[in-house]
Amino acid sequence: MNLYEYMGKEIFRKNGIPVPDGYVVESASQLKPFKKPSVVKSQILLGGRGKSGGIKFAKSDADLKAAATELLGSKIRNLTVTKVLIEDMLNIKKELYVSIALSRSDREPVLIASNSGGVEIESVPQGEIFTKKIDPLLGYSDFIGREASAFMKLDPEIGKQFRSLLVNLYNVFVSEDCELVEINPLVVTAEGNLIAADAKVIMDSDSFFRHKDIVITDPEKTPLELEAQGKGYAFVELDGKIGVIANGAGLTMATLDALTLHNGKPRNFLDLGGTDNVDIVVEAFDLVLKANPKAILVNIFGGVTKCDTVANGIVAAKNKFSIKKPMVVRLSGVHEEEGRQILKENGIESYPTMMEAIERVVKVSEVQ
């Protein structure tokens, strides 16, 4: 889960990483009186905001109000700006780059640092980039910071600040269950201070049960998608008429592709995941029904998710919500015979193969 810049900077601040003084507003009426030159930064989950007009500079109260008014509610690459961050303008002498990223191939964090900040790290020549793997069992060691500051040829005082910052940055990476922490640019000010002018923090979304204070509301998600997200379902609304429930992202995507191949239009993507809980199946139906499909397709390959459990969940949902819409089910795998028998006794169509079920649901959806 990608955090907004202001959220990342709050985490930095709590962990001893210097950031500019600033505050967040959702409307121009929340602006504080102008005191010094400021930067007005749109809070969207995209890089390259400056090139897209998402960052403004204010040298007067009028500039500040005009910038906030212009940015709030605007669209930047199809994302709506609902918040802006107002920060003190920095007296920049030099821009650096630093990040700690999770290398999935190496299964360990990697420190990346460069003298070339303020640009995408991919555009920096490889010879100007310092990289160092960090053993997750041993953790961060001071010699890594000394190697990095020597590579970057930092002067002694900035090098000292940089090494201190790296310790804190690694603590953020570990304590916040991050996949990436990035500062670009990391600014050396004319006053000789090292300050994180930006903050990109990507957390492992599976760790959110440990971070109850982190709340992300994506303005591009529909109310139903947000509801599903809050309940732990992978759910996307689409523009078709066949509601889809499947287990596993791969099978769900294959189901959507197969529906499209047979001229069926999916109304949603819902990944039931691996479960052996009737209530989770019932709640999935509640979400799909709120999308108002013409027909519902359930495609289950039973493993962890047993077919008879899903069948009992479908029957429970049918009774609870008084479902009159056509339902077609494909059950294959663990306890499939028992599951199909349960569905048959309750008047619900079921098939052993995906294509049989898809051909049937496309047909019944056309007459609705």
UniProtKB/TrEMBL annotation:
In terms of Pfam families, this protein maps to: ATP-grasp_2 (PF08442), Ligase_CoA (PF00549)
> Which keywords, in A-to-Z order, does the entry hold?
ATP-binding, Ligase, Magnesium, Metal-binding, Nucleotide-binding
Q: Which residues form the ATP-grasp domain?
A: 9-216
Q: Which GO terms describe its biological process?
A: succinyl-CoA metabolic process; tricarboxylic acid cycle
Q: Which cofactor does it need?
A: Mg(2+)
| Keyword Magnesium appears in the UniProt entry | yes
Enzyme Commission numbers on file: 6.2.1.5
Protein's UniProt keywords contain Metal-binding: yes
Task: List, in alphabetical order, the Gene Ontology terms for molecular function in this entry.
Answer: ATP binding; metal ion binding; succinate-CoA ligase (ADP-forming) activity
Gene Ontology cellular-component annotations: cytosol; succinate-CoA ligase complex
> Can you tell which superkingdom this protein's organism belongs to?
Archaea
Kindly give the NCBIfam families that the UniProt entry links to this protein: PRK00696.1, sucCoAbeta
| Record's protein name | ADP-forming succinate--CoA ligase subunit beta
Which gene is this protein's source?
Answer: sucC
